[in-house]
Write a structure and sequence with these properties.
The chain contains seven helices and no strands. The protein is an all-alpha fold. Helix 2 runs antiparallel to helix 4 (84-109), helix 4 packs antiparallel against helix 5 (116-147) and helix 5 runs antiparallel to helix 6 (153-165). The radius of gyration is 22 Å and the shape is elongated.
Length: 190
């Protein structure tokens, strides 16, 4: 009986080592794909945070401003941002999401060792441009949805998800090759 248990345990350990070895081999062979997977996972995690913050802001904190027009700023009106609640909700939730993504990507995804001050400055410039785009695009779509009578929680949250996903086109390459660079190779033994 003891012999059968020992044999079973040894077989399980061999399977675990095989799966672990296969995962390590995949990561070593497809490093860029693995980095994109980790970047995507980080993005999904911080997107959940961003969407939660957005929902609280949109439907609780700024609920009374969702129908207050932006009339005191010609630039915002020109850009199609008509309601203060949407604008504030998109802006604040994006700042929180991007801050969390920066920390996770620097430490976990890319294990960056480039100058942290320079990386933070470049990231901040990218984020400012992305937040301006997200705020405009999100507010524009939010206004479009509201003006056409599709102002349901599901449609607004789906729109927020789309608005958050579009910047991946430029944020991954900038994060990977400019912001979170590695100067020293990662020690494979760790």
């Amino acid at each position: 009986m003891e012999e059968a248990k020992s044999s079973s345990i040894a077989l399980e350990e061999k399977k675990e080592n095989t799966i672990k070895d296969k995962l390590k081999a995949f990561v070593n062979k497809h490093g860029e794909i693995w980095k994109f997977i980790k970047f995507s996972f980080t993005g999904a995690s911080t997107s959940v945070l961003e969407m939660a913050v957005f929902a609280v802001l949109q439907y609780v904190v700024f609920k009374s401003l969702n129908e207050v027009p932006v009339t005191d700023n010609a630039v915002l009106s020109f850009l199609g941002i008509e309601y203060k609640g949407y604008m504030y909700s998109y802006f604040i939730s994006a700042v929180i999401g991007y801050a969390a993504a920066y920390i996770m990507n620097r430490k976990l995804t890319f294990k960056a060792d480039a100058n942290p001050v320079l990386s933070t400055i470049i990231y901040a410039v990218m984020v400012v441009c992305t937040i301006i785009f997200n705020t405009w695009f999100g507010s524009f779509l939010g206004t479009l949805i509201k003006n056409n009578g599709y102002d349901s929680v599901f449609i607004v949250m789906l729109t927020k998800l789309v608005v958050m996903t579009v910047p991946t086109i430029w944020t991954y390459p900038l994060n990977r090759f400019v912001i979170h660079r590695r100067k020293k190779p990662i020690d494979e033994k760790k």
